[in-house]
Every structure is written in structure tokens, then in C-alpha cells.
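Researcher: I'm comparing several assemblies side by side, and this is the next one on my list. It has 851 residues spread over two chains. Same procedure as the others: predict the full complex and return the structure.
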Amino acid sequence: MATAILDLDVERLPEAIEGLDRYATALALLRLQGTPCGQLRRPVVDGRVDVAQLRDEVIAAFGWSLARRRLQRQLGWEAPPSAAAGGLPSVTVAVCTRDRPLALAHCLEALERLPDDGQELLVIDNCPSRPDSRHVVARHPRVRYVVEPRLGLDCARNRALQEARHDVVAFADDDTAPDPGWLRGLRPNFADPLVMCVTGLTMPLELETDAQEWFERYSPFGRGFERLVLDSSNVGPAHANRAGAGANMAIRRTALTAVGPFDEALDAGTPTRSGGDTDYFMRLLAAGYRIVYDPAALSWHRHRQTWADLRSAQYGYGVGVYAAWTRNLIVEGELGVLKAALGWLRYVQLPTLLRSLLRRSGRTPLDLLLAELRGCAMGPVAYLRTRASLHGRASSAV
Amino acid sequence: MTAAPAPRTASPSRATTTPDLSVVIPTHNRAASVRRTLEALAQQTYPAAHWEVVVVADGCADETVAMLHATASALPVRLRVHEQDGQGAGAARNAGAALASGATLVFLDDDMQPAPGFVAAHAAIHAGRPEQVALGPSWPVLPGRLDFFRIMLRAWWLDFFGALAQPGYRHTFRSLAAGNCSLPAAVFARLGGFDPAIRSSGGEDWEFGVRLIKADVPFAFAAKAQAQHHDETHLRRSLQRRRQEGQAEVVIGRRYPDLCPGLDLARIDTPPSRLDRRLRQLAFAAPATGDALARLSLALLDELERRRLRRPWRVLYGHLRDYWYWRGVADEVGSRAALAALLQGPAPADAGREIDVDLGAGLEAAEQRLDRERPAGVRLHVAGQPVGHLPAEPGAEPLRGVHLRSALATTLADRFLRVLAVQAATGASLSASWQPILSGASPSAGRQPVRSA
């Protein structure tokens, strides 16, 4: 059965939550004063969530951190990010899309609901085979439309970084719906001049199918409800995916001169399937910059609905991680990659596989795991081949 | 030392009205760098009639002096150049201050590139205000692909100024980075300026910082007095500096025994690891062996960097830094016995006054009391129940109200909340300002909570 998604303010819990007849459980995002502070799963009985129990759970699980936040608010001490050299940068929001006009339409509607802080809205249509996306954008006069003819998400990202008129580019995937407070959550983190990238919390927009449930359970985008500041002193670059994911990330444009553009041999639209974001995080960390994960920058993601799509995404995830690691090993000479790969295999993948084979309760579906492992095995080959063919194309073009 | 050439002072250009602010720049054999500093000073927004520049060429053997005389005409403000034999940065700043005619002194290092509003910001922060020292942020500019050391250096500088910028930051003598700071000339004269006897890098500004803190001159962060800092420090030089810091801390500890507990010196018997203990022994007893090991380790550091192995690199660098600090201490103090004698010297007569403050009456009342009394430390209570202690810290400024706020919001938050909860439960009367923290989640209907249905 499906899971209902709730969005609750802990200081204004509703008196009743009902009408959820289609659902067996509810996943509640909890906010304090608009800022996400936690999540809870509660059973749905006869279409209702027991609010009294919910309140008890909220107090038990979050009472302390809520009290701390209230204290800080009373003291006027909302954890100030480190001092700025100048003011906060202005932002261009970029949506990279390819032939998904329906998803894009939803995403743009969400973006139009953001309060106007002077942000620019930009759609990069990546190698479109139909004019549908152009028609969708035409309904939004504020949105600038740019076609990037070279296929590949990283080509589109690089184009967005070039086209943007502002200093920071906030990327939203076309299957996400950024929360109205999204940009206001991302932006203050750029006060620290060493912060080149900020990622946010991505919650599931819906959990209607088994595939969506498993995605959220097995490889969620969210990285928790505490703000994290990552740099090479506290996380090895090989573990850069702790920073979050490209579905909800903002990049300072000076990153282009600091570490160069996204690697166009990586990510969607190429045989490497994903990993462009992870690779970029690795390079930023290796060059001594900081990445902030801030749950205040909330976005909602529609996970793949069918099992076949989920399995394919899981395969693509495995390919992408290993492709990005391959790049960082051979191009950047990061030996730490080997240790990270062994650690993942030994402490995560093999134990999960074992539980799955032994049919332990709560096991991960075997086909997902195998798809991921197959992807990992393909990653290095996929990267090296794509890279070689890109180089070939570049040199034959000269 | 060679015989000193007679000091020569030249005022090649534009004597106008008496300036009210003087920028003093000490420099040593860095003609290109100081030229960049002067070019940035030529772009200032502050009216040229109101300020001047004094450059002290301290033992310059390069083309610095010729460059200065050639540049003077391009500067919209009066430039005075003073030459002396090499006496160190402290002595050079003192010589510059003696020549300066402004009521406000701005000290600027020769590797700084001040922003156009730099002089105006330093001038504004002193105008019509009580005596204070203003500290400007110097943002590191390190070109090219950075090695591990310079990545660390850049983050260190940014975090240093980031901390100073926090409203509740409690300054210590280490806040005084003399490369970008300003103060009334009268305060500088009254305190006798920098101690020219401290030649080692970093030592002379810390020592001056101690005297400023002891004279109760407040430190203020001047956020707009920005400069870019073209820091050329590299790994090997940073280790030399660490040795000089060891020397400087001994000088400071000797002069101000009450500060000893807060210096790294005091941790001689608590090394972070067994290896550090051995290295400290070498620094005192067998420096030739220690130095040889340190040289070998440098080669190993380079190798770790080539393989991009950050963690082992950081660990090894930490050991080296520790070794060279104690090597500097040993240079200055001589033996471990002498260090022990220094540390066990006469107990500080005045560890600082501590007061008791009850928070039950609200934050504002407590803050006002701290601002009024400026104690060295404070014990906090709510209706007699202890909340926490902001202790007297050697070398730190007396407490202000804003220090209380930052401590309650961070380090003391958990304890404070517990005490508040207990007090509320037992019916103690609390200030209305604490009530909203304790009131629980209150239900209210109306909002549709379901996103997808």
C-alpha cells in the first residue's frame, strides 16, 4: 500500500488528519517556522492518523531540538553562517530538461511560486527531439529558454553556468518541485567565500508505488535534518556524495575558473548514466572548497514510478559512482578512491547482498542490488569509452 | 650587524593640510608587492586631503626605495618614505608611527591590497567613538592550483576573520593581526608601540595585543575595512614561523606570567600522542637528531601530497608543527627545567574578577549588568540553580553582554533549557522573555497538511 506524504508545522499540528483511505502509512515532514526539522512515519488506520500519538512522537523525537531552536530564536541567534566578505550573491535558477514536458510544466509552476528575490529563471533544453518543452516554457514569460544541442546532462549544466546572468546557479531537476522557501534556504550559505556549492534536502513528492517506496528507502536524496559543512578536512573527496545530489544543488559560477566545467563524459545522456554531480563535488572538495548541505533548502522529487525504471536508475547510479571514481583516480590521481570503493563493497554492498540472499526481514530486493553491482562493474569501462569517444570527436572536429 | 646608515626621511610630494589619518606600511625587500599596495591606496574613496601614507623601508636592498620615490607623484595623497637598516616589523611600524601626523594610525602590511573603501572604513569606525582598536578582514588571495598546505592556510585565514566577525566573539590578544588594523595614535603612544626587541614573526603583534587587552582598549571588527592578502607563505616557511611562535610565546610568558596557562607552552606535559612526546624530548635534548628527522619528514610530506593522501599528510604535518613549536620554545627558554620554572612562577596575583548573575530576570538585565561591570568571568544561575560558567580567560577581553547571548545559544544551551524547565515546573517566577521557549506545541486546525492525496 502507498504512503501519504504530510507536511506539518510542529507548532501548529492539525486537530485531525483524515481522508487518507488509500494509504497504509503516512510520512510526515516536520517543520519549525517553515524550516524542515525532522520526519516521522505513522500508521494510517481507517484513513486517519492518530494526532495525539503523532504529537507524543513529535515531542519524544524532536522536543529537545525544538526547545533549542526556540531558545536560539528567542536569543536572536539563528546560527549565523560564517562572515561574508561581501553581500549574498544573486541567483539564477536553471532547469536542465530533455523531452519531459509534463514534468517540466510542474517544475516551472513550483518555481513561479518562489518569492521574487530577483532570481533569473532559465530552462536548458538538452538536445530536444520534440518542440514540446519549448511550448511549455512559452507559457512562462519570465523564464528564459536556451537549447543546448549537445546531448548530456553535464553539457546542459555547463551551458547553464555560461548562460546564467547571476553569480550562483541553483539547479533543479525537471522532476522536482522546489519548496517556496528553497532559494532562501540555499542562498545564505554562500556568505562564506569558500562555499562553492550548496545542496538541499530532497523529500519524496509522493510514495504511491513500491518502486517509489524502495527508492526512498534504499537511496534517498535527503541527507538528514542537520546542516553539514563538508570540506577535505572532514570528508575525503571520494566520499563526496555525502553532500547530496544534483537534483537540488547550487553552484557558484566562479567554480568554473576554480575547478573547471562539469565533465561532459559523465551523467545522463551518456553511457555513464549519472555521476556528474558527484564528480564535481569531489573536485570542489579536493581543491579545498566547501560544500554545505542545508535542509532549509527543501525540494520535492517525484521518484520513478515503475519497478523497471527504478532498477534502471539503480544500475545507472552504480555506473555513475564508479565512473566518477574512475575519473578522479586517473585524472586527479586521488588514491583515496580505492579505499572508498572497497569500503562501500565491504561495509554496505556485501552485507546488504548477504541479508538479501539469506532472506532476512527488511531485505533489499535482490534485483535492485544486482543492478547496482552490475552498474559498478560497468562504470570504469563506460567512463573510459565515453571519454575516448569525446576526445575523438573533439580532435576530428579540429 | 653592519653599521646602520643614517635614517633618511623624504617627503617628496604634496604637503597639504594636516591629515587626520596615517597609513603606515612596513616593508622589507618586496618592491613589487608594496607597489601593488600603493596602487590600491591610489584608488581610495576617502578624500585625499585627510590622510597620508608612510612607508618604512626596513633594510631594503632591492629597488623598493627607488620605486617609492618614483611612485610618490602618482599617489593622490602625501607619501612619506623612511629608510632604516633592518630592525624588524615592530620597529618599522614604530618608526612610521613616529613620523605620522594623523590622529588615527592604520597599520597595513606590504602584501595587502586594500579595497577602495578601506581607508574610509578605518576612518569611520574611529570617528566620534571612544578609543578602540579596529581589526579589518584580510581575505587571502592564493593564485593557481593550491597544494595541501595552502588549502589549509586559506581556510585558516577565512575562519580566523569569520570568527572575529561573529557578534559574540570574545577577543584575545591573538585577535590582533597587525597587517590590517587601526587605532588612535594617542593610544599607540601611551602604550609605547610595538616592542622592537621581539623580532620573530607574529610575536610583536601578540605582545602588543596583550598590552591593549590589559589596558582595557576594546577590539572592534571593521567589516568594511577589507584588504586582499597576497600571502606567500608556503609549507616550509610556515614551519619556520611555528618555531618563531614558540620563541615568542616564551617571551610573552616571561613578561606576563598570568598568561602562561593560556599559552601552548603550558601543555608541555600533555602531548597529543606518544610520538609528539618523543619529538618534544628531541627538541630539547637532541635538536640535531630532531631536525634531521624533520627534514626527512618534509620529503615524506611531499610524497604523500603527490599521492593525494590527505589524512596521513595532515597527521604528519601536525607532528612537524608541534616539533617546530617546541624547537622554538627550546631556543628561547633553554631547557625543560627552565620551562618548568617559568610555568611554576609566582601565581598570578589577579586572575580576574568573577561575578554572579541571575538569568531569571531576563536576558536584557543580565546583558546590561555585564556591559556595565565588564567582569573577567561570570557564573550564571536561574533562581539559585547553576546554569554555567564563563570563566576568566588569560589574555581575553573582559566580558560583554553579547558574549552571554552567544554562550547561551550554543555551549550552555542544553544546560540552560534543563534549568528553565525545572524552574518552570517548580513554579519559580521567570521573566516573560523565557516563556515562549517553554510553551509546548499548541494545536490549531485549518491548514491542509496533506500534500498528495
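Model: For your comparison table: The radius of gyration of chain A is 21 Å.
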